[in-house]
Specification:
22% strand; 17-stranded mixed sheet; alpha/beta; 15 helices; 453 residues; single chain
C-alpha cells in the first residue's frame, strides 16, 4: 500500500497552500506512517506567472514549504526510486526569498535516503537555480537526466560528481530537451554548446571505471576520450539517438575492443560506424537509423553494399534482431541484392526493413515473405515504405500495393505454414497481420489476415 508518493510542489501557485504542504508537515513531524510504505517518490516543482499580490501570498507559502522539506523527504526511509521534475518560470521563481535553498533542500532530503538507487531528473525550464546541489546525490545505480541546454558546464560537472560518487552505476540515460531537436545533430556548430558524454567521466581517477551495462543518449555530443572507454567495457546496450558523434568515438571502441551486443545508432556518410560493426563480434541486436537526406544514390548504395557484405555477412551467425529504419532508399531496402544476406541470418527473430519494388515478377514484398519461410525463428516482421529518391519526403505509411501483396500471399505447403504460423507482420502505419487458415478439405490454404485493433 502507498508504494508511490507524489509531491507536486506548486510553489508559485498560491491556491495550493494546504496541498501538498499538509503531507510534508505530517511527514516531517512523524504524524503519518505513510512514508514508511513508500518505495517510489516523485517531486514536481512547477510554477506559473503571478501578479504582485499572488507573488506575495506565494512567498509566505514558499517560506513555510522549505522549512520541513528535508525532514519530510528524509522520513521516506524505504524509497528506492526518486523522480525529480523542475518546470518553473525562473523570472518569477528567483523573486521568492531564498529560492536556491528550496532546491538545495530537495536534494539534501534525497541525499539522506539510504537505499535510494534509481534517480530521474528532468529540467524542463530554461534556468533552474542551484543545479550544483544535484552533486549531493551518491551511490546511484540507475541515473536518468533530461534537460534543456542551459549551464552546460555546470550540469556536466555536477553529473560527473554524481558518477564519481556512484561506484556501482549500471544504467545511464541522458537526453536534451530542444525546441528544434532535428537540427541538433545535423550541424556541429549548432551543438557546440551541447552536453558532452565524455566529460561526465573526467573526475574518475586514472584506471578507475564504472560497471555501466546500459547507456541511452539522445541529442548529446559524443567524442573519443581516454576518460570514457574504461567505463564502457561491460556495456551490453548502447542507444544513440540524434547525437553528434565523431568518427573517432567508433574508432576508439574498436581500438579498446569494446564489443556491444545491443546497439541503436545512426549511419550517415562516414563509414566509421560500419567499420566498428564489422569488428563487433558480440553483436546480437542492431537498430540502424540512417540519415541520408539529400545524399546521392550512388553514395547511399556504396554504404549499403559495405553494410551487407562486410557487416551482416560477418555477424549473421549471432544476429537475433535487425532493424533498418532508413530515411533512405536503394540497397538499404530489401531487394535482390540484400536478399542473400538476410537469408544468412538463421537466428533472426525480428526484422524491420523497407521494401520498394512491387512490380511483377520482382515483387520485393513477395520475395521477403518467401525469405521469411527460410528463417524459421522469425517472429516479427516490420515493413516500411522505401523512398524512391534522395529528394522524396519520408513516407508515413506503406503503399497500398505492399498491403495487397501481404494479403494475397498464399501458403500451401506444411513446411511453410510451420515456419510462418507464429509470425506477426507489422506495417508502417499500424496494421498487423497473422497467418490464418482459409477454406476446407483439399482447398485449404493459409493467408495473412488483418488483425482487429
Amino acid at each position: 500500500m502507498f508504494s508511490h508518493l507524489k509531491m507536486q510542489l506548486n510553489v508559485l501557485t498560491h491556491e495550493n497552500k494546504c496541498d501538498p504542504m499538509s503531507i510534508v508537515d505530517d511527514l516531517a513531524s512523524g504524524k503519518t506512517r505513510v512514508g514508511r510504505y513508500a518505495r517510489d517518490l516523485r517531486v514536481i516543482l512547477v510554477s506559473k506567472r503571478l501578479n504582485n499580490q499572488e507573488l506575495k501570498d506565494s512567498s509566505d507559502y514558499f517560506k513555510h514549504a522549505q522549512q520541513n522539506l528535508i525532514a519530510a523527504i528524509s522520513s521516506l526511509s524505504n524509497v528506492t526510486t526518486a523522480s525529480l521534475t523542475f518546470d518553473v518560470d525562473f523570472k518569477y521563481f528567483r523573486q521568492l526569498p531564498m529560492q536556491h535553498v528550496f532546491v538545495q533542500n530537495i536534494f539534501r532530503g534525497i541525499k539522506s535516503l539510504q537505499i535510494l538507487g534509481n534517480v530521474s531528473i528532468v529540467i524542463g525550464s530554461e534556468s533552474v537555480p542551484s543545479l550544483r546541489t544535484m552533486e549531493y546525490l551518491h551511490d546511484i545505480q540507475n541515473l536518468h537526466f533530461f534537460g534543456v541546454r542551459q549551464a552546460v558546464r555546470v550540469v556536466e560537472g555536477t553529473l560527473s560528481k554524481i558518477i564519481a560518487a556512484s561506484p556501482n552505476l549500471a544504467r545511464l540515460e541522458l537526453g536534451t530537451i530542444a525546441q528544434v531537436p532535428d537540427q541538433y545533430h545535423r550541424n556541429s556548430n549548432s551543438s557546440a554548446t551541447g552536453y558532452r558524454l565524455e566529460r561526465l567521466f573526467q573526475r574518475l581517477p586514472r584506471g578507475e571505471s564504472r560497471p555501466i551495462r546500459h547507456i541511452e543518449i539522445r541529442m548529446w555530443k559524443i567524442a573519443q576520450s581516454v576518460w570514457l572507454y574504461p567505463s564502457l567495457r561491460l556495456l551490453d546496450t548502447l542507444i544513440i539517438d540524434r547525437c553528434n558523434v565523431t568518427p573517432g568515438f567508433w574508432d576508439g571502441l574498436r581500438e579498446h575492443a569494446i564489443f556491444i551486443s545491443t546497439l541503436t545508432m545512426s549511419v550517415e556518410e562516414n563509414i566509421a560506424p560500419l567499420r566498428y560493426l564489422e569488428t563487433n563480434t558480440a553483436l546480437k541486436r542492431l537498430t540502424l537509423l540512417t540519415e541520408f537526406n539529400w545524399t546521392a544514390l550512388a553514395v547511399v548504395d556504396d554504404l549499403a553494399k559495405y553494410f551487407w557484405k562486410e557487416v551482416i555477412s560477418k555477424r549473421a551467425s549471432k544476429l537475433k534482431e535487425l532493424h533498418l529504419r532508413p530515411q533512405a532508399h536503394g540497397k538499404w531496402s530489401f531487394c535482390e541484392f540484400s536478399r542473400e544476406y538476410v537469408m544468412e541470418c538463421k537466428k533472426l527473430q525480428a526484422l524491420s526493413i523497407c521494401v520498394a519494388t512491387q512490380l511483377e515478377p520482382n515483387n520485393d514484398t513477395i520475395s521477403l515473405l518467401d525469405t521469411a519461410k527460410r528463417l524459421g525463428r522469425l517472429r516479427k516482421l516490420e515493413l516500411y515504405q522505401a523512398r524512391t529518391s534522395e529528394r522524396q519526403s519520408i513516407p508515413t505509411a506503406v503503399d497500398q500495393t505492399i498491403k495487397e501483396a501481404v494479403e494475397k500471399y498464399t501458403v500451401k505447403e506444411i513446411k511453410g505454414v510451420v515456419a510462418l504460423q507464429d509470425l506477426i507482420i507489422q506495417l508502417q502505419g499500424g496494421d498487423s497481420y497473422t497467418l490464418n487458415q482459409e477454406g476446407d478439405g483439399d482447398a485449404i490454404v493459409w493467408k495473412f489476415q488483418l488483425q482487429a485493433v
